[in-house]
Amino acid sequence: MIRKISRILCTVIMVLMLVGCKNAKQKLQEYVTTYNSVAANFKAEDVTLTTARGYINDDKIELRFETNLEQNAVNKVKAESSFPKLLKEMINKDQIPKELVEEGIQFDAYFLADDNTVFVKQIINKESLAELLK
């Protein structure tokens, strides 16, 4: 009798674990949906809008940070120093989850001028994560 109950409990636990576990692609979709739903509340210096777009087949998430900065040399230098700090802060606050990066999801983050040209592009993956967090 105890043996039957143990088997049933083990089976139920295994089923619950399988149902409860999400693969990286499902987590990617959830992250993008959640990120975009709270993006209006995002606050960072010079950032006017941020959005996320998921690419399931490529295991990639694109983060765009639109700014009110004009595309010029002075603002480019400013962006090159402030953007990595912003990304590091977001990782530390789990706004960019390390878990997703460790599961093989790559983040392509773009810091954009007011005309949507790119100031800085930062790729966050397993290899670059440690360097970014220094």
Description:
The chain has one domain (22-132): GMP Synthetase, Chain A, domain 3 (2-Layer Sandwich). It has a 4-stranded mixed beta sheet with strand order 1-2-3-4. Helix content is 49%, strand content 23%. With 134 residues, it is an alpha+beta fold. The model is unreliable at 15-19 (pLDDT under 50). The radius of gyration is 20 Å and the shape is elongated. A hairpin with a 4-residue loop joins strand 1 and strand 2 (60-67). The chain has helices at residues 2-20, 24-38, 73-92, 98-102, 126-132, and strands at 47-55, 60-67, 106-112, 118-124.
Assembly classification: single chain
- Determine the N-to-C terminus distance: 57 Å
Strand share of the residues? Answer: 15-25%
Q: Name the CATH class.
A: Alpha Beta
Protein name: Lipoprotein
Organism: Flavobacterium soyae
Task: Give a quick summary of the entry.
With 134 residues, the protein is α+β, with helices and mostly antiparallel strands. The protein has helices spanning 2-20, 24-38, 73-92, 98-102, 126-132, and strands at 47-55, 60-67, 106-112, 118-124. A four-stranded mixed sheet has the order 1-2-3-4.
Pick out its properties.
134 residues, alpha+beta, GMP Synthetase, Chain A, domain 3, four-stranded mixed beta sheet, 4 strands, 49% helix, 23% strand
Which secondary structure elements does this structure contain, and how are they paired or packed?
Blueprint (H helix, E strand, L loop, with lengths): L1 H19 L3 H15 L8 E9 L4 E8 L5 H20 L5 H5 L3 E7 L5 E7 L1 H7 L2
Parallel strand pairs: 2-3
Antiparallel strand pairs: 1-2, 3-4
